[in-house]
UniProtKB/TrEMBL annotation:
Ranges where the EMI domain occurs: 38-92
GO biological process terms, semicolon-separated: cell adhesion; DNA integration; DNA transposition; extracellular matrix organization
Signal peptide span: 1-19
Protein name: Transforming growth factor-beta-induced protein ig-h3
Length: 677
């Protein structure tokens, strides 16, 4: 069973790797999935409730979904093959006939009928080498009645021209249909535009090829899912001539993007309608339209670097915009989505240099927003309200270069209200320059609007400013940046000694520090981390032991130094097994629930100008080394091994894994009475 699966996997990988194009890769995958049903059988996925079928790729096969909708698997003949009565699979190649007759057997009978009406039959039955992008029967049925009537009412001109636009005067296989290529059609040499996407979808003028490479004696037929029309205008023409895009037209001109949208390229423009602009608060819209930098960022955020037809999307895909960030372009059933929202109301307006999709909601990038708009558009609701209540809104909505530290909602106590002290504290959450977290470095100093200096602390898995650690990616606005942090900031106030003296919980510790002669150390520049035993911690000691300790300044100093480290470590920098080197002794071990050598931390992150204090509920003791129990059986095996002197058996390993080898080592020490280290 395992060998069969392994062989299938290797075959699948090898076959797909040998495929020449994304379409061929998907086709090969479909062949492999269908081969259990016979030769030349392809697995197809059909979206339930529709007629849309796709060759299957790995992701779609396992998820059984396309555009978020469930699919059913069917097994059909691969392109160019047909069934034979009584035979398994599709063993026979389709008869090679001319294009006219090929149309009848590949699901394009309506195109065949209209070819005869337009007197195109003789041409596609005769000599030549043509490529015919033939609309399927369903494509003709979906054509608006007024358009179809206009075509069939003038078959010798309009219908013939339309069919000629679906033809190229030489043979093009799917391998020749390269992404971004264009070929002159047989209607006045107007180009047909090809896009060949990484997911295997191939489009011509945004119509998906549903059956490819149907070979004929005088060319090749590719069946497409819609009737295509000639493309003569660039994407800017849509913006320039459609009254629904009047506001966008004004914005494009003001931002100086007209020339770009008229030039060669393969753009995708998500064009906001007038209605989309009207949904934006008037003050915000006026500010953006009056700011050339913000306006250009706004519009570039609506333009993709590559052309994306609606039919090319089968799942959510992040795509880069000209603004530099990404949009997630996806689909939900027949709806095309942007960032998960179905806001596209008109799709696939094709131009010579790209495609336009009309949207009914304006997309505003962070880079066009003020700090206040950034905060209001985030999930940080409590801090945002408090900044406004504190009268700091003018700073956040202006053009000052600032960085705001916004604590997560859970960092605040429920029902928090504005006070003078809180207003002062929030002012110290605003830094006087626009920063990126990527340029911060250890022990860097940052000045706040409140006039104090904050320290940057860099740890292996966290980046902190004082006690607050950054909890999400930066948001960079027009003039400022926003850092989401996990805690309300505690600015440093005084030295470690000042912090201890100001808190009644540490009165016994303050006396002990003075007795031990460590006062000057606690006032020095540092940095220091102090695990400060509370009065309760000292009181928990037997009275005689406490008196003895307090009466011996030298021993007391040693004990206290085991509670101190010459570096600064806040709780956000503590990992699963963090170690500190104390001023006295070997090591201090901390874990993520913040225990220090198994003593619980009562309150963390009391920030001082020369370090940090963590209140602990007991005196920290050195971790005792623990031995390993060794059975008498292991000891006897060691003795036996030592009795094998000079014999070949001595070279054979008695123990095969690390655990047993460790026990053997301890057993050796046990026999020799060596000390544990």
């Amino acid at each position: 069973m395992h060998l069969t699966l392994f062989t299938l996997a290797i075959t699948l990988i090898a076959t797909i790797c040998l495929a020449k194009s994304p379409y061929q890769s998907v086709l090969q995958h479909s062949r492999i999935r269908g081969r259990q049903h016979g030769p030349n059988v392809c697995a197809m996925q059909k979206i339930q409730g529709t007629d849309k079928k796709y060759f299957t790729n790995c992701k779609q096969w396992y998820h059984r979904k396309i555009c978020g909708k469930p699919t059913v698997i069917s097994y059909e003949c691969c392109p160019g093959y047909e069934k034979l009565s009584g035979e398994k699979g599709c063993p026979a190649a389709l008869p090679l006939v001319n294009i006219y007759n090929t149309l009848g057997v590949v699901g394009a009978a309506t195109t065949k009928m209209y070819s005869e009406r337009a007197q195109l039959r003789e041409e596609i039955e005769g000599p030549g080498s043509f490529t015919f992008f033939a609309p399927s029967n369903q494509a003709w049925a979906a054509l608006p009645t007024e358009i179809l009537d206009a075509l069939v009412s003038n078959v010798n001109i309009e219908l013939l021209n339309a069919l000629h636009y679906h033809m190229v005067n030489h043979r093009l296989t799917s391998e020749d249909l390269k992404h971004g290529s264009a070929f002159p059609s047989m209607y006045q040499d107007f180009n047909v535009h090809i896009h060949h996407y990484p997911n295997g979808i191939v489009t011509v003028n945004c119509a998906r090829l549903v059956k490819t490479d149907q070979h004929a004696t005088n060319g090749i037929v590719h069946v497409v899912d819609r009737v295509i029309t000639a493309v003569t205008n660039n994407v800017h023409t849509f913006i320039d001539t459609d009254d629904d895009l009047e506001t966008l037209r004004t914005a494009v001109a003001a931002a100086g993007l007209t020339q770009m949208l008229e030039s060669d390229g393969h753009y995708t423009v998500f064009a906001p309608t007038n209605e989309a602009f009207e949904k934006i608060p008037p003050e915000m819209l006026k500010r953006i339209l009056g700011d050339p930098v913000a306006l250009r960022d706004l519009l570039n955020y609506h333009i993709l670097k590559n052309m994306q037809c609606a039919e090319s999307i089968t799942s959510g895909t992040p795509l880069e915009t000209l603004q530099g960030t990404v949009l997630e372009v996806g689909c939900d059933g027949s709806d095309m989505t942007l960032n998960g929202k179905a806001i596209i109301q008109k799709k696939d307006q094709l131009g010579t240099n790209g495609v336009v999709h009309y949207i009914n909601e304006l997309l505003i990038p962070d880079s066009a927003k003020t700090l206040l708009e950034l905060a209001q558009g985030s999930v940080i609701t409590t801090a945002t309200k408090l900044f406004v209540d504190a009268g700091l809104g003018s700073h956040l909505s202006g053009s000052e270069a600032l960085t705001i530290l916004t604590p997560q909602n859970e960092a605040f106590k429920e029902g928090v209200t504005m006070t003078g002290e809180l207003k002062k504290l929030l002012k110290n959450h605003i830094l006087k320059e626009q920063l990126s977290s990527g340029v911060l470095y250890h022990r860097q100093e940052l000045e706040t609007l409140g006039g104090i200096k904050l320290r940057v602390l860099v740890y292996r898995n966290s980046l902190c400013i004082e006690n607050s650690c950054i909890a999400a990616h930066d948001k960079t606005g027009r003039f400022g940046s926003m850092f989401t942090v996990d805690k309300v900031l505690t600015p440093p106030m005084g030295t470690i000694m000042d912090v201890l003296k100001s808190d009644d919980r540490f009165s016994l510790l303050v006396g002990a520090i003075q007795t031990a002669g460590l006062t000057e150390l606690m006032n020095q520049a540092g940095p220091h981390t102090v695990f400060a035993p509370t009065n309760d911690a000292f009181s928990a000691l037997p009275k005689a032991d406490l008196n003895k300790l307090m009466g011996n300044p030298q021993e007391l100093a040693s004990v206290l130094k085991y509670h101190m480290a010459k570096e600064i470590l806040v709780s956000g920098g503590v990992g699963s097994h963090t170690r500190l080197k104390p001023l006295q002794g070997d090591k201090l071990e901390l874990n993520m629930t913040v225990y220090i050598n198994k003593v619980p931390v009562v309150e963390a992150d009391l920030m001082a100008t020369n370090g940090v204090v963590h209140a602990v509920g007991g005196l920290v003791k050195m971790l005792e080394e623990t031995g390993t129990k060794v059975s008498i059986f292991t000891v006897k095996r060691v003795q036996y091994r030592r009795n094998l002197k000079g014999r070949s058996a001595r070279k054979k390993p008695l123990l095969q894994n690390r655990h047993k080898k460790a026990r053997l080592w301890f057993a050796s020490c046990f026999l020799e009475k060596c000390p544990l280290v």
